Amino acid sequence: MLRLAAASLAGTAIEFYDFFVYGTAAALVLGPLFFPTFSPVAGTLAAFATFGVGFVARPLGSVLFGHIGDRHGRRPVLVASLLLTGASTVAVGCVPTYDTIGVAAPLLLLVLRFLQGLGIGGEWGGAVLLTVEHAPAGRRGLWSSFPQVGPALGFLLANGVVLGLSATLSEAQFSAWGWRVPFWAAGVLALVGLWLRSSLAESPQFLDIDDHARVPLTEVVRDHWRLVLLTAGGLAIGYAIFYTVTTWSLAYATERLGVNRSVMLVCIMGAVVVKGALTPLMAVLGDRHGRRPLCLIGCAAAALWMLPMVALLATGAPLPMFLGFVGAMIAFITMFAVIAAYLPELYEPRVRCTGAAVGYNLGGVLGGALTPIVATALAEQGGRVPWGVGAYLTGIALLSLACFALLPETRPVPAVAAEPATG
Length: 423
Description:
Blueprint: H1 2-28, H2 30-34, H3 40-72, H4 74-92, H5 98-101, H6 104-132, H7 140-168, H8 171-176, H9 181-197, H10 204-207, H11 216-255, H12 261-289, H13 291-314, H14 318-345, H15 352-369, H16 371-381, H17 387-405
C-alpha cells in the first residue's frame, strides 16, 4: 500500500504541476504576451478564459479515460493520461507569442490547454481508484489521501519554479523566455512519473468484476445522474476556493493592489503547505466519523469565511493575506481530503471510474473554470475590498452545502458492496 500510494502521490503531483503552472502563467504573463491588443483587464480575462478551457475539457477526459478504466482497467489510465498531459504542457512552452504568429498564438494555446484538461480529467479517477480499491475498508480515507496530497505538491513545485525564476531573472527576461522554463520542465517530470507507474499492479476490485459495462457513461447517465449532479454541486466550492486563492488573488493583488509578485507567491504557497499537511489528518477523521459530516463542516466554514478572506486580501499586507488564505484552505481540505474515498464509495465498481471522475470534474467546471473570470469581473466593479467576490463565493458554498446534505453517508459500507443510487 505504501509503494502504491507513493506512486499515486508522485503521479498526481506531476500531472497537477502541469495544470497549475498554466494557471500561474495566466495570472502573470499570458495576457500581455498572447492578447496584447486588449486592455490589461481584458487581457487577464482572456488569459483566464483559456485557463477555464482546461476545466471544460476535464469532464470529457473523465468520460474518455473513465471508459478505459471501467472497460480495461485503472492502470492503463494512469499511463495514458500522464503522457497526454505532459506532452501538451511541454508544447505550451514552445508556442510563439502573438507578436510572432498573430492570432494563431492564442488559438494554439487554447488547443493545448484543452488537451491538458483531457489528461487531468483521466488522472484523478485512475490514481484514486487504484489506491482506494487496494486499501482495506477501514483505512480507505487515509490511503486515498495520498493522491489528494499530490495536487498540493504539484502546485508548490510549479509556483516554486516560477518564484525562483522571478527572483533570478529581470522582468524583461521572465517575459521573454523565463515563463517557458516551467512548461519545458514538465517533460522531465512526465518521464519520472511513467517510471514510477510502470510497475503498479491492477486494482483487485476491477479484476473481480465479471460483467464489465459496455458503455459506462450510458449506465452512469441512466442510473446515477442524480449522484453526478449532487457531487458536482458539492465539489464546486472546493474548486472555487482553491482557484480564487491560487490564481485570481495572484492577478488581483499584483495588478490592482501593487503587491510584489514574489510576496504573493510566498503567501499562497504557505497556505497550500498548510492544506497539504492537513490532508492526511482530515482523511483519518473521515475514516472515523464519516465522509459526509466533514463535507458539511467544510462547506459551512467556507460560507462563513469568504467575506473575511477578501477583506484580508484587500489589505495588501502579507500576514493578513496569508491568514485569509489559510482559513480558506482549511475549509477546502476539510471537504476534499475525504472526497477521494467518498466518491468511489457512491458508485458500484463496474461504472466507478466513469461516475466518480465525471462528478469530480464537473465540479471543476462549476467552481474552477468560472471563478477566476467571474471574480475578475466582479472586482472590477467594486472598490478596494472586492465584496462582490466574497458574496459570490459564499453563494457557491451554500449551494455545495445543500448538495452534500442530500447525499448519503458511505463510510460503514464496503466499497465493493455499495448499492448503486438511482435517479
